[in-house]
Here is the input.
Amino acid sequence: MSRLPRVVDVEHLGGYCLRLTFSDGLVRELDFEGILKGGVFQPLERIEGFAEVGLDDVAGTISWPNGVDLDPDVLHGDHPAANGKSPSVLREYRLRPTG
Here is the structure.
C-alpha cells in the first residue's frame, strides 16, 4: 500500500504565499490571500501571523502556533477544500531525483 503524499517542507514566500514540498516530489506555490478568514483563522489575516507557518512532522502538513493546520490532501490538490475556498496555485512542478 502506498503512502499518501505529505508536506515535508514549507517556505513563506512573502505576503500570503507559501512554497510547499511534498513527499512525492511535488512542489506547489500557493497564494492564500483572502482564503483564511475569521474564527480560528483571524490571527492569520495579518501577514505577520501568517508568516509564522511551520511544518507539523507528525501530521505531515503545515500549521501555525495557534493550533490551526490544513488538510495535506487539499494542499496537494487531491481534494477540494470543505469550505470550497482553495488557495490559488501560482506554480507547480516536480523535483527530479538526484544521484
Remarks:
- The first helix runs from residue 47 to 50.
- Residues 7-94 form a domain with the NE0471 N-terminal domain-like fold (CATH 3.30.2020.10).
- The longest strand covers residues 7-14.
- The two ends are 26 Å apart (CA to CA).
